[in-house]
User: Fold these one by one.
Assistant:
Number 1:
Amino acid sequence: MRRYHLWMLLVALLWLALSPATAQSPYRVFVPLVARPAQNPLFSGEATYYLEADGSGACLFDPIPGDRMVAAISYLNYGNADYCGAYVEVSGPQGSIVVRIVDMCPDNPGCGPNHLDLAPQA
């Protein structure tokens, strides 16, 4: 896992070095970096929603205006913020969406293993 984080850091530094010097935008863009898509785990679980979802949370990200396609992952899967910033596809009876993990679902009976707590927009 450390090699993956080092790879992400190197890609980010290279991108910064090659990007033109322009005025800084007030918005941040988070782009997923998938190093080995064939090795991404597939989980099955329950999803609910929480009204307070704004893009901030246990992962310490700032809210992104207009981006509410976010989710909190179960405290049982949170680990050491292992999935913070990860984009996950959520599939259900009404279709599929992609959300970004920004928070941890608290230790309570309604948030079991592989549980996602989605923003209402998701």
Note: The chain is about 15% helix and 25% strand.
Number 2:
Amino acid sequence: MICYECGHAIRRDFAKFCDHCGSSLEIKPKKASLKKAMVKIEDEIDQATNLFLLWNSAIAATFVFYIIHAVTDGYIYLFLLVLFMLAVSWMLLLTKLHDLSIRHHQPAKEFILTNFGIPIIGTFYSYIKLTQK
């Protein structure tokens, strides 16, 4: 048996107290509560900016590959892949912007109506509004 407090090895199996430090062996000490790491607003804004840049680059790539597909009648899979990347990056951006809107105590109804009522303009507006310092 080993003492939870000091780590002293106890030879008696039915001992209730440690011979070395005197602490009780029946009650395990509570683990020290880990403090939650507070996420800074600047870090969240940086993450939103990175996702916003990814979303904008996906928009540009989608247009480029659509033009390539329209001119050459090929590369449809490449266009669909970039379109899928556009959708995924937009969902990630909206998730991060929703987190920021919760931090700014903005109602969820307003956020949803802004971003899904007029998707592209609403997302640009939400990004600009929520990342101002």
Note: The helical segments are 41-72, 76-103, 108-117, 119-130.
Number 3:
Amino acid sequence: MGTLEVFIPIAGIITFAVIISFITRLIATSMHHRTIREAMRSDPSSVPMLVQRLEARQPWADAMLGWIFIAFTIGIALLAITDSDPSDRREMLRAAIVPLIVGITVLAFTHFASRQNAGTP
């Protein structure tokens, strides 16, 4: 089995899942902003609570993307280990470097951003 036959469907599914999660997050944020605008017109005293709720996003929401890339890396590495052709194995392990770096970068960014938002140096 060629490398492209494995990577293209997996990458397509992960891309689709990430796009859907971003679209749902965009819709939810849009609805929340609309609620804040309506509250500013009708009941301005409730706005601070709504703004705090907007800022208090789920802590795992951003990190999940990083974990998805790490899981994709593990899947590629497991496929590579079970491949009998050494050149395919080497090519798959080299390809696993990209999602690993992206996953680690996303996790590091969310870690440092959460520390910065919490006010710790």
Note: The CA atoms of residues 73 and 96 lie 5 Å apart.
Number 4:
Amino acid sequence: MEDLIGRPVLVHPELTTDPADRQGQLGTVSHVSYDNEVIEVSFADKHRSLYTTDTLLVLKPHSELFRDMMDALRDMDAQDFKILLSISMILENGTPRQQHEALGMALINEQILRSATIPLSSRLELTLPQDREPHWQKGTGR
């Protein structure tokens, strides 16, 4: 999970209980607690707050976003498609700063946010090695 440090994240806009009151704000992962999946997020104003992985959103992997865009093309507004295509291109070739900006682009409307992001917890489940201890595998004891 060291590769999470510096990753842009979005505090879920519909989070109902956030003592830091950062719903819908962009931040950067600054620390990861391995034992209980708590993530420390730093914000532009230098404040930090702790979140669980299911309360933070990240951009989908490029291939997944592109596939989902193509599947939903007929039902999608042209402007939303253009924005998602821009996000997808940034994911494929962009700098870390551009990827942070791409996450901000996902906030334009609810459709784009839903299409472009997934909870950080889902992303971690996708990247866990299959040879890990049983309690680290998807669906057991979480």
Note: The first helix runs from residue 62 to 72.
